[in-house]
Amino acid sequence: MLATLLSATLVALDGRVIRVEVDVAPGLPGFTIVGLGDASIREARERVRGALRNSGFVHPPRRITVNLAPADVPKTGSAADLAIAIGILIGSEQFTPRAGRAALIGEVSLGGEIRTVPGLLPMVAALARRRVGRVIVPADGAAEANLVDGLEIVAVATLGEAVDALRKRRHAGPTRPARVEMAPTAVTNAALAAAPSLAPALVPPDLADVRGQLEARRALEVALAGGHGLLLIGPPGTGKTMLARTIPGLLPPLSEEESLRATIVASVSGEGPISGLIERPPFRAPHHTSSYAAIVGGGPRLVPGEVTRADGGVLFLDELAEFSRDVLESLRQPLEDGRVTIVRAAGSVTLPARFQLVAATNPCPCGYAGMEDRCSCAPGVPERYVGRLSGPLRDRIDVWVTLARMPAGSMVGGADPESSTVVAARIAEARDRQLARPGRRLNARVSGRALRAIAALNAAAAERLAQLADSELLSGRGTERLLRVARTVADLSASAAVEIEHLEEAARWRPPTVRARLALAV
Predict the structure, then answer these.
(1) Parallel, antiparallel, or unpaired for β 2-11 and 14-25?
(2) What is the pLDDT of residues 101-159, one digit of tens each?
(3) Does domain 2-186 have CATH number 3.40.960.10?
(4) Which terminal CB of the chain, N or C, has fewer other CB atoms within 10 Å?
(5) What dihedral angle (degrees, nearest 10) is formed by the CA atoms of 79, 83, 88, 94?
């Protein structure tokens, strides 16, 4: 007997509806799965066989053929396990469904339990777009599935509960609050985030805990206000990492649309459990030993990498110079275009990667370049160390700041510096001014005529910009980046136009020469 059910699979960040066709026919016992499935789908045979037996059902000693259609769409993961198991029960006439058309998503264990799978949210959204009225999902993924409006969600914990749900007549589902409609494929290529339920358990340090380093605090505020790339350089113990760790408490919450898109990426990345829409921007801090695939994304399932998980938020790279050259060079495209394209033999996929880069590095391998009594590096080593950052990558970082060692006396006593709450309010106000302009973009993403229009330079400011560009030997791209930072400085002071003082402050954070950088690190 032939049984046909609906399920779903993932292709990058998008859910795809698939038909699970199960044919239970007389003949020598066998179990074949076709339809371009990966290893996890081929292994479903053993999971389903054990789940049926241990749930009190019979695994029929017949020839079982499972076809996952359409055949030209690659299928990955274990989301179709439940549909395969139910199809075998229907095909072997162990029960007859009465609930009408329903889709099934979930992994089955050998004991018959139904487990949630990564990407449940976009898969349920894909079924909703196909007008499927009822979806059976794992019990621990029900809250995530309920984020999609327009269908009835049935949560089951075991294979037996799934059978009981299909035996019952369909009932109207409970009334749920309206949600933003899940848009098709292209909507996922946008700002992403991290949620309160996914946030680190530790509360980020408050900016008031960072004493001294006034220049670095100001640079961080300007960078976050305009979405500019930031590089912190200095010897160990100067507060680079601690300053960066305050960022989650300084960024404003995401919009509703951004929250929805962020939740999709969190779902696909398996960062559950997800109990609601994500509200806070992500702060990703991968280790410097992370591989190319971990940063950019890829693998057999084309899973998103750190650049995609940080989209709409901040990617913090501590010990920047210790990352491999391939990883550092891979950041150039997403920093410029806000997306990353992964090409594999089976095809290519473009993932969103509009993140803000914040990085920290020592001036040399030992960290004490310029200190003759402490630096243990051979001559030329510090220059080669900071030279690991290629020119094109350095040119994509807007704000450079050098942190010097602070006297011990500055760390105790005196008035408390501004807290994260105070600085976050200024950052939010500056961002609101930028998003209120045509195009609704942060300054870091504005260029060309649009940048010149919002800068509104008078003759004196335009002349000063030309002087700064000539003195720093800036390229056209470098000059634009200087103007973008100046526009953010002006936004923080609520100025309608970029003035000379804004340009001069922005010029302080241009990348210095290697020799000057080492001298300032003392």
Answers:
(1) antiparallel
(2) 799 999 999 999 999 999 999 999 999 999 999 999 999 999 999 999 889 999 999 99
(3) no
(4) N
(5) 130
